[in-house]
Specification:
Keywords: Coiled coil, Endoplasmic reticulum, GTP-binding, Hydrolase, Membrane, Nucleotide-binding, Transmembrane, Transmembrane helix. It is found in: Endoplasmic reticulum membrane. Belongs to the TRAFAC class dynamin-like GTPase superfamily. GB1/RHD3 GTPase family. RHD3 subfamily. GO terms for molecular function: GTP binding; GTPase activity. The protein is mainly alpha-helical. Among the domains are: 3-278, P-loop containing nucleotide triphosphate hydrolases (Rossmann fold, 3-Layer(aba) Sandwich), CATH 3.40.50.300; 453-540, no CATH class; 543-676, no CATH class; 795-859, no CATH class. It has 30 helices and seven strands. Strand 3 and strand 4 form a beta hairpin. The protein is rod-shaped, with a radius of gyration of 67 Å. The termini are far apart. 31% of the residues are buried. Bound molecules: guanosine-5'-triphosphate. Guanosine-5'-triphosphate (GTP) binds next to helix 3. The site of guanosine-5'-triphosphate has 19 residues, from helix 3.
């Protein structure tokens, strides 16, 4: 506190009754009144103008009120009300110097301001000094009488007046002792009190109920200054600890806390100016309300700009803050305590209400930070859950057990984090976010569980696919009586190996038995679908399989050695066996046989197709067992090839294999004809005996032998060129004539050709080498195997490549047009690329020599 500044008087109300708010605020701040709580006293002085009031106050309290210059005469110096703080008086004492009454400046009738300022002083002061001249005591026309009347009248306008000490200061005391003066004065006061009109409630109320009347006297300041000063010092002692019990203001009531003093004064003056009755209790509540509001607002502002709070708020944006609740609780506590400290002297009900409002404002301010903290904790809990679940699952624990263990630890940690984040001032409920964390964990668990189950299922499916797909295909390749039994055995063996392992893996998920059994059952269905799909796939290629089977049997003997058609073989029987084998294969492919129930499909097919009851013209629908789309013993869903499809397949099969049989027959004929050209054995013996000498001559002379060989070649070339066989078809004589006529030109032709060949040989060698190089590439491309319909790894496909029937592709255009070419048949997409692309070895095997080849061509 700046004492000099505090002692400097400030105008609280100007002469016009305007409240000097700003100056007063500055004074309050300089005097440090606001922090005094209830420990302060307010003293005011009223009395006639120029009665030495300011002089007394300055002497008594060390203040600096303006005094009238004694040498310039008596005129009004104090206008309105001035305020200053007493120097060296404890507790803090504020003193108000009021404008003098009955002043000439305002005129006789203008007493409104006097009354208002008197009421104002009574309303806010604990002690009122009534300054009066000693010679006015007991006088009927005393100057202070109207003043006292005014004081008592306005007192009635306070609903619940404070108990105010009225200290009468008798100035310029005479030799009459105070003991004699005081009773006279009290009598005067009582008379005035009695004469004042009072409300009914206070009609008989004694003056002592409202006022504590005390009297003191001082010598004249002008004449006995020394004595005056001494006695003023004695009087000053009475103002020390004035608010303590027994002190000058020990009985005071309804004190406004110092921080609300200025506001309260302003409001009181406002009410007085409006000429309303002053309800001090209500006023006190109003002041408390306003002041508590101000304090709460101020403390809230302090919190928002609190560096510690701002740091905490920033920190929580980027991540969880350790001991968040402790730190935040401390910050909130500091500001709430500040409020409590300042608002403590105000009306309790108001104070408490405003505290609640401040608290809820503060909590609203800090709650987003708390929510942010919870969000971090939520994220952290989920991350921890994910990591821990991974680790626990990898340790080999069952999935459900891992989930239980990890969930519990994650939720415990989250709960712990929440408990550390809450503050004691708030009952923040984090059960909702706990529920969210629980849901996060459940969602993640569900996703992981689905993915793990799907992974398990896919793994088991892959195993089943590997275990069933290729073996089933291989079984269909070698389709026979036991194919479906083998497939059933394979299915049983593999599912019994894989499904229990799958079931065991499922146990870690602790599913309901119905669910796990459903999954196992689905897997079993999947295994069945693998087999069924493979069967459907192979059934789609049944014609190709049948032809392969046919070729296998037809072109190979019992030891699987490729057959050489010498003419001794029974082609009909072999063809029938081959067709029978193909038909058996067809019967295997017609239906899926999951049960062991025997069926008559093979018998029906054999009796109707193989034994010839089905002709190209067909039979009547009523007697044809194949004129149907279902098999008797087979459910439609297990039917792969319907009876009617079998029938048309068989027709196609027969058409496409007919060529192979024809080829075999032709080969046999060619073979027979080739063997028939040799002379009979007896002729050969006769030649050997009769020509023995000539043979020996030839053998002894190599030149003869060479010439004989050259002659043979020439004759052979002539025979080929002249086509001897054809020439002699019309008889021997026409043949001889025709041959003789053509002999010389043909001979010349041969010689010219030989000579020309010799010349061109050199050129051709180079050109041939280039063209060979160019052709190698496309040939290689041509010889690429066609899109495989069977697995290249399959031994069957290898066998097929080795023993394919003669391809129509290399034959002459005439022959190709005449033959029922496989390439022109409906199944050409299956057979012809393979036939045309197969290597030439089997063809060479069935072409013993050029002659037989010619014979073969002519048959076909
Ligand atoms: N006779 C006498 N005169 C005094 C006394 N004290 C002061 N005075 C004189 O009275 C005159 C007025 O003094 P102030 O202290 O200004 O009086 P005041 O009551 O404050 O005057 P206003 O504020 O104008 O009403 C001055 O000239 C003082 O010297 C006193 O005890 N006795």
């Amino acid at each position: 506190m700046d004492e000099a500044a505090a002692a400097e008087a400030v105008q609280l109300l100007d002469g016009e009754g305007e409240f000097g708010g700003e100056a007063a605020e500055r004074f309050m701040a300089a005097a440090g009144v606001a922090g005094c709580g209830l420990s302060y006293a307010v003293v005011s002085i009223m009395g006639p103008q120029s009665s030495g009031k300011s002089t007394l106050l300055n002497q008594l309290f060390g203040t600096n009120f303006r005094e009238m210059d004694a040498f310039r005469g008596r005129s009004q110096t104090t206008k309105g009300i001035w305020i200053a703080r007493c120097v060296g008086v404890e507790p803090c004492t504020i003193v108000l110097d009021l404008e003098g009454t009955d002043g000439r400046e305002r005129g006789e009738d203008d007493t409104a301001f006097e009354k208002q300022s008197a009421l104002f002083a009574l309303a806010i002061s604990d002690i009122v000094l009534i300054n009066m001249w000693c010679h006015d005591i007991g006088r009927e026309q005393a100057a202070n009488k109207p003043l006292l009347k005014t004081v008592f009248q306005v007192m009635m306008r306070l609903f619940s007046p404070r108990k105010t000490t009225l200290l009468f200061v008798i100035r310029d005391k005479t030799r009459t002792p105070l003991e004699h003066l005081e009773p006279v004065l009290r009598e005067d006061i009582q008379k005035i009190w009695n004469s004042v009109a009072k409300p009914d409630a206070h009609k008989d109320t004694p003056i002592s109920e409202f006022f504590n009347v005390q009297v003191t006297a001082l010598p004249s300041f002008e004449e006995k200054e020394e004595q005056f000063r001494e006695q003023v010092q004695q009087l000053r002692q009475r103002f020390s600890n004035s608010i303590a019990p027994g002190g000058l203001a020990g009985d005071r009531r309804g004190v406004v806390p110092a921080s609300g003093f200025l506001f309260s004064s302003q409001q009181i003056w406002k009410v007085i100016r409006e000429n309303k009755d002053l309800d001090l209790p209500a006023h006190k509540v109003m002041v408390a309300t306003v002041r508590c509001d101000e304090i709460a607002h101020e403390k809230f502002s302090c919190l928002t700009s609190d560096a510690e709070w701002m740091d905490l708020e920033n920190a929580v944006q980027s991540g969880p803050v350790p001991s968040f609740g402790k730190k935040l609780g401390y910050i909130v506590d500091v500001h709430m305590q500040e409020y409590d400290k300042e608002a403590i002297y105000f009306d309790e009900a108001v104070r408490t209400t405003k505290r609640q409002l401040l608290k809820s404002r503060v909590l609203n301010l800090v709650q987003p930070a708390f929510q942010k903290m919870l969000a971090h904790l939520r994220t952290r809990a989920l991350e921890k859950y994910k990591t821990d679940l991974n680790l626990t699952s990898e340790s080999g624990k069952g999935f459900a057990a891992s989930v239980r263990e990890t969930t519990e630890s994650s939720l415990n940690e989250f709960n712990q984090g929440c408990a550390d984040a809450v503050i004691k001032q708030a009952d923040w409920d984090y059960s909702k976010i706990l529920e969210k964390v629980r849901r996060d964990i459940e969602d993640h668990t569900l996703a992981i569980r689905e993915s793990k189950l799907s992974e398990l299922t896919n793994h088991a499916k892959e195993k089943l696919r590997k275990a069933l797909s290729e073996p089933v295909e291989s079984l269909f390749d070698a389709a026979g009586h036991t194919t479906w039994a083998s497939i059933r055995n394979l299915f049983k063996r593999e599912t019994e190996a894989i499904l229990p392992e799958f079931r065991k893996n499922l146990s870690g998920f602790e599913m309901e038995s119905t669910s796990s059994e459903q999954m196992v059952s689905n897997l079993r269905d999947y295994a069945r679908s693998i087999v069924e799909n493979k069967a459907k796939e192979e059934a789609g290629k049944v014609l190709m399989h049948m032809k392969e089977r046919f070729t296998m049997v037809f072109s190979h003997d019992k030891d699987s050695i490729p057959r050489v058609w010498t003419g001794k073989e029974d082609v009909r029987a072999i063809a029938k066996d081959a067709r029978s084998a193909a038909l058996k294969l067809l019967s295997v492919m017609t239906a899926i046989r999951w049960d062991e129930k025997p069926d008559r499909i093979e018998n029906i097919l054999t009796s109707t197709l193989l034994d010839g009851s089905v002709t190209s013209k067909g039979t009547s629908a009523s007697s044809d067992p194949l004129a149907s789309t279902t098999w008797e013993e087979v459910s439609p869903k297990y039917t792969l090839i319907t009876p009617s499809q079998c029938k048309s397949l068989w027709k196609q099969f027969k058409a496409e294999t007919e060529f192979t049989i024809t080829q075999a027959v032709s080969t046999q004929q060619a073979h027979k004809r080739g063997n028939g050209r040799l002379p009979p054995p007896w002729a050969m013996v006769a030649i050997a005996v009769l020509g023995f000498n000539e043979i020996m001559v030839l053998l002894r002379n190599p030149i003869y032998l060479f010439l004989l060989f050259v002659g043979y070649l020439l004759v052979k070339a002539l025979a080929v060129q002249l086509d001897i066989n054809r020439e002699f078809q019309n008889g021997v004589v026409p043949g001889i004539i025709s041959v003789t006529a053509k002999l010389v030109p043909t001979l010349q032709n041969i010689l010219n050709k030989v000579a020309a060949d010799q010349q061109q040989q050199g050129h051709h060698q180079e050109a041939a080498a280039e063209s060979l190089e160019r052709q190698q590439q496309p040939q290689q491309q041509q010889q690429q195997p066609p899109p495989l319909l069977l697995s290249p790894r399959s031994p069957m496909s290898e066998l097929r490549r080795m023993h394919m029937p003669f391809s129509p592709v290399p034959l002459s255009p005439v022959r190709r047009a005449a033959s029922p070419s496989p390439s022109s048949s409906s199944s050409s997409t299956v057979s012809s690329p393979r036939n045309s692309g197969e290597d030439q070895k089997p063809r060479q095997m069935v072409e013993p020599d050029n002659e037989s080849n010619n014979a073969y061509s002519s048959i076909v």
